[in-house]
Specification:
Rossmann fold, two-stranded antiparallel ribbon, 13 strands, disordered N terminus, Prob_Methyltransferase, glycoprotein, Methyltransferase type 11 domain-containing protein, membrane, methyltransferase activity
Length: 409
């Protein structure tokens, strides 16, 4: 099946078989032709009465029947392969004929013919807009999300969108409505914004239990966000050591030989790590969701870049771009070990060769969990620049490490 090269002058034009489906059809048709010829040869030569006109007629009729059967099988196979191709391309992940599908969702997901016809490289003749395949399992919620007046204000339903994301309905479809605006009051200029007070009025509190930052200050929202909206207590992080598992930012940056410029923080709470890095002229993107608090808006108010994205989504970055990745217990996506492996491989993909992976106070729920994570890290071949396993006051085991990604052939 391979490729054919036509050299014209100094250039080379290549023509490749575009899809698995077309290759399978060609193989099937070739097999059918060979089978038909073999059967015909057998039918006309295997019997002693081959010279009988009546026998000739019977043989021809029998061959014709078999040939018709083979042609029907080829036609059926072509239809099945076409259906498989559509499913692979996502054309029919959501049944748009269902009565509860909103008109905006139908319009967004309807097929669009390519202006120049079939694409010779991919074999695609139509395009549809991107939407998560798991959205089909939450079609009612998705239709609710896509119910709005075009060019009017969007419903105040960001929490509905996040619920869909957490159900793996990601990416969400785009909408033709105007999102609710909240006046951003008393925003400060950088670097004062990094540790300045954020006004309650500059945040959309709908869909949240707390309606002020004072309410959030004493709450444990996650293992790495215990009172993390109280910036007076956050100021000690990464610049003062409370235990042997805590590393100082200056010490970690020194391991990067002055080549740390951009980084990625996984589940970074209220953005304190990115704020500390900003003081060192390092730009850090903080991955977050608004689980129980307005993390995204609070981080943005500090002058830091929030990325509203679940950890089940492939990171929207090119390969080998970050100098540093920082992660703590938020890296633990729970479930089967394979789920953590998928996440770790994507983190490895976006970290540049020679870049640093800082695992900061990762909570080891069991000795087996610690061993699984250790084995996984070792399989990547990272160089251990720092590696500390210790207990905290709660007698629970934590792992902290700074690892360097190798240059792979």
């Amino acid at each position: 099946m391979g490729s054919v090269s036509l050299k014209i002058g100094d250039g080379t034009a290549r023509f490749r078989r575009s899809t698995i489906c077309s290759s399978a059809v060609n193989l099937l048709m070739l097999f059918s032709v060979v089978t038909t010829n073999l059967f015909a040869l057998y039918a006309f030569s295997s019997h002693s009465q081959a010279d009988s006109p009546l026998h000739h007629s019977n043989n021809i009729s029998l061959v014709s029947q078999h040939l018709s059967l083979i042609l029907r099988e080829i036609d059926s196979s072509q239809r099945k392969l076409a259906q498989m191709e559509k499913q692979i391309l996502g054309y029919e992940s959501i049944d748009l004929s269902r009565p509860n599908i909103g008109p905006e969702l139908k319009l967004f997901l309807q097929r669009h013919q390519l202006p120049l016809g079939k694409d010779s490289r991919t074999g695609i003749t139509e395009m549809v807009s991107s939407v998560g395949h798991s959205c089909e399992k939450s079609a009612d919620l998705l239709s609710q999300y896509m119910s709005y007046k075009v060019f009017d204000r969007c419903p105040d339903d960001w929490s509905l969108g996040q619920k869909l994301i957490l159900r793996a309905c990601e990416p969400l479809p785009r909408r033709r409505c105007l999102a609710k605006t909240v006046p951003k009051q008393d925003l400060k200029q950088s670097p004062n914004s990094l540790w300045g007070t954020v006004s309650n009025k500059s945040v959309n509190w709908s869909g949240l239990g707390c309606k002020s930052f004072d309410c959030l200050k004493g709450k444990k929202l996650s293992r790495e966000c215990v009172g993390c909206f109280d910036l007076s207590s956050e100021k000690d992080k990464f610049v003062k050591v409370k235990g042997k598992n805590d590393f100082l930012i200056d010490d970690v940056l020194s391991l990067g030989s002055g080549k740390i410029r951009i980084g990625f923080d996984i589940s970074g709470g209220s953005g304190t790590f990115a704020a500390r890095m900003a003081e060192k002229n390092v730009t850090v993107i903080t991955n977050t969701l608004n689980n129980g608090a307005p993390f995204s808006e609070f981080i943005a108010a500090r002058g830091i870049f929030p990325l509203f994205l679940s950890l089940d989504h492939r990171f929207p970055f090119h390969d080998n771009v970050f100098d540093l990745i920082h992660a703590s217990s938020g890296l633990d996506v729970e479930g089967k070990p394979e789920k953590l492996e998928f996440l770790m491989f994507d983190l490895d993909r976006v970290l540049k060769p020679g870049g640093l992976f800082w695992l900061d106070n990762f909570y080891c729920a069991s000795d087996e969990k610690k061993k699984d994570l250790t084995r996984l890290i070792e399989r990547f071949g990272y160089k251990k620049l720092k590696w500390v396993i210790g207990e905290k006051s709660d007698a629970q085991v934590y792992l902290s490490a700074v690892l360097q990604k190798p240059v792979r052939a």
